[in-house]
Structures are given as structure tokens and as C-alpha cells.
Automatic annotation (TrEMBL):
Protein name: Complement C1s subcomponent
Matching Pfam families: CUB, Sushi
PANTHER family listed in its UniProt record: COMPLEMENT COMPONENT 1, S SUBCOMPONENT-RELATED, MANNAN-BINDING LECTIN SERINE PROTEASE 1
GO MF entry, a single one: calcium ion binding
Source organism phylogeny: Eukaryota, Metazoa, Chordata, Craniata, Vertebrata
Locations listed in the record: Secreted
Residues of the CUB domain: 11-138, 185-297
Length: 468
């Protein structure tokens, strides 16, 4: 039935000569085979290239379809394609195992371009009426239809006719790529001696397109050590080291990292008081991030011995830079530092690992020599005439003419504060007042001898005389 191959080739070039392309850019339109509704001519080839605006696709459907049938539509056909993809090829007037008619089927372009080619060969055994097709631009719901992960929105997607846009959850900022949601995380300062730092939202996946910066700034003398804990999950690449997301640690002049992947770095002893952490994420990937705890220690100071009759607080096995110790003494003792007595004394472990001062000694409180008493005298009750804490003295009045006023014992004890104290008078001295010089025995004898009247006259005179 088919003629010579040579003829075939000739015809092919003829088709080419007859072939023409129709450019269409309306939002809808009609396409018909040449001569429709009459029989289409042999050896014809027409291409309709339809272009609609970005954000639209093209829907094509047929109201009438009647072409010559051939094995795999070799001879007459309608072919629907994009720049690089065959969407459908139709021929015949009914579906067979090998040939396809459009029927009620619609052809949808993946993008905003569709090319439709009609071709007939040089001979048709019957009369075929061709086709009548319609197309229209339809909106692409980018929010639900985009399969390309790169193009859909990171958080929220909003479709509108002919396009879409993205927005972000509260607390996030839309990146200039208009697609991913980043966070502002470039200004984190840590000044405590211990702390925990994590990637944003940890352990939920960290935000995309973000540049985070964390600074640990401590006083000179501290050394910061870092330890990653828990999950470590940063997007990586099997061959290239950390091309997308990474964490870098800047410890003084040293830069550690970049680190990525699923294996966390070993604990890091930075040997510096100034550590910066940089964390970067690109615009894709769902990784959970990282968590690290840091701790700063200073140099160790030598161990401390509490002074005799004293204590240090807090009492620790080890002391480090910035630790402070308070020295105090037992009751009755005073801290003596540079010949100055005080209740407590504080020393501090310095950055070079030495103590700011030596431990002072505890000196027993001393009341000193007791003050002399007018018309009286003092005797020491404690051995060696001691005047220190808990020592005892006794004041008495010059006998027999003076008596201690107030009926007190005259006993004073050296207090913890270093002052002589009496039970009744406190720190005040007793007073010696003139009293009768006569002994009770003599008084009784005089009473008997003089009788009451004379006796009292005598006694009053005696007393008045002494007072004057
Ligand atoms: C029409 O589309 C086809 C398929 O993409 C292409 O090969 C051809 O160059 C286009 N024709 C014109 C005139 O743009
Ligand atoms: C993002 O959107 C703005 C305004 O809609 C536009 O000017 C800009 O070109 C867009 N940027 C990208 C990378 O698409
Ligand atoms: C800490 O390190 C950062 C970055 O290395 C540097 O810019 C900064 O001046 C340093 N600060 C101190 C107090 O050393
Ligand atoms: C104690 O003091 C008394 C006077 O108050 C004095 O006579 C005596 O020698 C002193 N004893 C000692 C051991 O110092
Ligand atoms: C003096 O004190 C002693 C003991 O404290 C007591 O027994 C005595 O009655 C007191 N004498 C007078 C006159 O208060």
C-alpha cells in the first residue's frame, strides 16, 4: 500500500515546505484541522505554539476527532508536546491497543507553553474530517500543585490567579528569595559562666536561610569548654564537606569547623574566654540542629587551711578563679590582718591562680589591763593575770571605809568582744562609796554600851563625816 521509500522521503520534504507554525498567545482559543469540517488534505503539517502568561497552564480538549488510523499513529496524527516533553499523540477515530483518540480526555500542559502539531501523510484511503479542539489558560495552584520542593513556600503559600506568594509563621522573616523563612539570630550574647545554646527552634528543624551568631564573652582568666549534647543534625553532603549548612566555632584566634552531618564534634576545650559560634543554613533541608552546653573554668588556686580557732567558708576541695572565701574566727577570737582586728576577712582566687591575700590568723580577744577604780582595787582571778577572753577580775573597794554601791559582786569577765563585763553593770565600772568603818561586832558592843540614841547619833556623824 505504501509506495517507494524515495517517494516517502520526497513527500517528507514536501511536508516541510507546506508545514507552518501558528503562534497563539490568547488566554483561550480554537484549533481545527485544515479545511475543517471538510476532509483534511494529504501531506499537510501545521503546528500551533500556544503561550500563556507565567502562572498559568494550558488545558486542551477535543470536541471532534476523526483521523486516519495507523500503527502507533505513524501516518496521520495530532501530537501535543512541550519544549522537551511529549504529552500525547492521537490518531484514528476510536481507541485501540496501540492507538489513542482524545475522547473526553483533556491534556494539561505542565507549564505555560504547549505545542500542537497536526500531520497527514500523502494518502488517505477514506475521507477523514479531522479535529476541532479548544484550549484555555487555567490557573496553576502553585501551593498544591508544585512538585518541585525548591519552588514551593517554606511556611505558608497563597495562590492567586496567575501566581502565588509565600508568607512566614510568627517570629520569622521572609528571605529575599521570597520563599524561605529565616530568623533573626545574629545577636546572642552569653556572659554567664555556664549556659546552653541551641539552634533556633531546637529540636524542631532549624529555620532556613539564616545566619546565626552567638558570642560567649567572659572575663579574662576563664577558659570556656564546649560540649555538644543530644541531637546533632546539620545538613551535609556525601562528598563535599558542609557545603550547605554548618556550624563554626571561633575560639580566640582559632577557627574550628565547619561541622555538619549527624555526628557531633568531640568536646572542645577552647583555652579562651572569648568564643563565637556561627551557624548558617541554606534555603532547603529539614534538619534538627544542635545543642551545646558550655562551661567556663578559671585557673585553680592552692588549697586552703582554715586558721587555728577559725574557719573558712565555703570549704571546698578545690578553688578556682573568682571563687571567694570568707575567713572568720571562733567566739572570743578576732581576725588579725596587718595588725588590724576585724570580724571577717575575704580573699579571692585570682586569674593567675593565686590568692589575693594570705589567710589571716585568729587572735584571742583581749580586754587589756582593767581600768583602775577610785577608792578601790582590782585583783586578777585567772592565773598569770590574764586579760584575754573569759579571764576574770574582781574589783573591790578600799576596806574598811568604802563599800561597793549597789550590792554587786565586783566580778568582771573578759567578753568575746574584748571588753570587761559585769552581770549587772555590763561594761560600767562599779562605784565605791564611803561606808561605816566599824565592824558589826564593834557596833554591837557600842550599841550595848551607849544605848540606842547615842549609838545612832554616833553612826550618823560617822557617815556624814565620811561623806563630807
Ligand atoms: C513551536 O514549538 C516547537 C516545540 O517546542 C518548537 O520546536 C518550535 O521551534 C516552535 N516554533 C516556533 C515558530 O516558535
Ligand atoms: C521578591 O518579591 C519582590 C516583591 O514582590 C520582588 O521585587 C523581588 O524581585 C522578588 N525576589 C525574588 C528573588 O524573586
Ligand atoms: C572576641 O572575639 C571576637 C571574634 O574573634 C572579636 O571580634 C572580639 O574583639 C573578641 N573580644 C574580646 C573581648 O577579646
Ligand atoms: C599580778 O598582778 C599583781 C597586781 O595586780 C602583781 O602584784 C602580780 O605580780 C602579778 N602577777 C603576775 C604573775 O604577773
Ligand atoms: C546583796 O546580795 C546578796 C547576794 O546577791 C544577797 O544575798 C543580799 O541579800 C544582798 N544584800 C542587800 C542589802 O541587798
Amino acid at each position: 500500500m505504501r509506495w517507494l521509500p524515495l517517494y516517502h522521503a520526497l513527500c517528507f520534504s514536501l511536508w516541510k515546505a507546506l508545514a507552518h507554525t501558528v503562534e497563539l498567545s490568547n488566554m483561550f482559543g480554537q484549533i481545527q484541522s485544515p479545511g475543517y469540517p471538510d476532509t483534511y488534505p494529504s501531506d499537510s503539517r501545521v503546528t500551533w505554539n500556544i503561550t500563556v502568561p507565567e502562572g498559568f497552564r494550558i488545558k486542551l480538549y477535543f470536541m471532534h476527532f476523526n483521523l486516519e488510523s495507523s500503527y502507533l499513529c505513524e501516518y496521520d496524527f495530532v501530537k501535543v508536546e512541550t519544549e522537551d516533553q511529549l504529552l500525547a499523540i492521537f490518531c484514528g477515530s476510536e481507541n485501540t491497543d496501540t492507538e489513542h483518540t482524545p475522547g473526553q480526555e483533556m491534556v494539561l500542559s505542565p507549564g505555560s507553553f504547549m505545542s500542537i502539531t497536526f500531520q497527514s501523510d500523502f494518502s488517505d484511503e477514506e475521507r477523514f474530517t479531522g479535529f476541532d479542539a479548544h484550549y484555555m489558560a487555567v490557573d496553576v495552584d502553585e501551593c498544591t500543585e508544585r512538585e518541585d520542593e525548591e519552588l514551593s513556600c517554606d511556611h505558608y503559600c497563597h495562590n492567586y490567579i496567575g501566581g502565588y506568594y509565600c508568607s512566614c509563621r510568627f517570629g520569622y522573616i521572609l528571605h529575599t528569595d521570597n520563599r524561605t523563612c529565616r530568623v533573626e539570630c545574629s545577636d546572642n550574647l552569653f556572659t554567664q559562666r555556664t549556659g546552653v545554646i541551641t539552634s533556633p527552634d531546637f529540636p524542631s528543624p532549624y529555620p532556613k536561610s539564616s545566619e546565626c551568631f552567638y558570642a560567649i564573652r567572659l572575663e579574662e582568666g576563664f577558659m570556656i569548654s564546649l560540649q555538644f549534647e543530644d541531637i546533632f543534625d546539620i545538613e551535609d553532603h556525601p562528598e563535599v564537606p558542609c557545603p550547605y549548612d554548618y556550624i563554626k566555632i571561633i575560639a580566640g584566634p582559632k577557627v574550628l569547623g565547619p561541622f555538619c552531618g549527624e555526628k557531633s564534634p568531640e568536646p572542645i576545650n577552647t583555652q579562651t574566654h572569648n568564643v563565637s559560634i556561627r551557624f548558617r543554613s541554606d534555603n532547603s533541608g529539614e534538619n534538627r540542629g544542635w545543642k551545646l552546653s558550655y562551661k567556663a573554668t578559671g585557673k585553680e588556686c592552692p588549697g586552703l587551711q582554715p586558721p587555728a580557732q577559725g574557719k573558712i567558708e565555703p570549704l571546698q576541695a578545690k578553688y578556682f578563679f573568682k571563687d571567694q572565701v570568707l575567713v572568720s574566727c571562733d567566739t572570743g577570737y578576732k581576725v588579725l590582718k596587718d595588725n588590724v582586728e576585724m570580724d571577717t576577712f575575704q580573699i579571692e582566687c585570682l586569674k593567675d591562680g593565686s590568692w589575693s591575700n594570705e589567710i589571716p590568723i585568729c587572735k584571742i580577744a583581749d580586754c587589756g589591763a582593767p581600768a583602775e577604780l577610785e577608792h578601790g582595787l582590782v585583783t586578777f582571778s585567772t592565773r598569770n593575770n590574764l586579760t584575754t577572753y573569759k579571764s576574770e577580775i574582781r574589783y573591790s573597794c578600799q576596806q574598811p571605809y568604802y563599800k561597793m554601791y549597789n550590792n554587786i559582786t565586783g566580778i568582771y569577765t573578759c567578753s568575746a568582744q574584748g571588753v570587761w563585763m559585769n552581770e549587772v553593770l555590763g561594761r560600767s565600772q562599779p562605784t565605791c562609796l564611803p561606808g561605816t568603818p566599824l565592824s558589826p561586832l564593834l557596833q554591837r558592843l557600842l550599841f550595848k554600851a551607849l544605848g540606842p540614841q547615842e549609838f545612832w547619833l554616833l553612826m550618823e556623824g560617822e557617815v556624814e563625816g565620811m561623806m563630807l
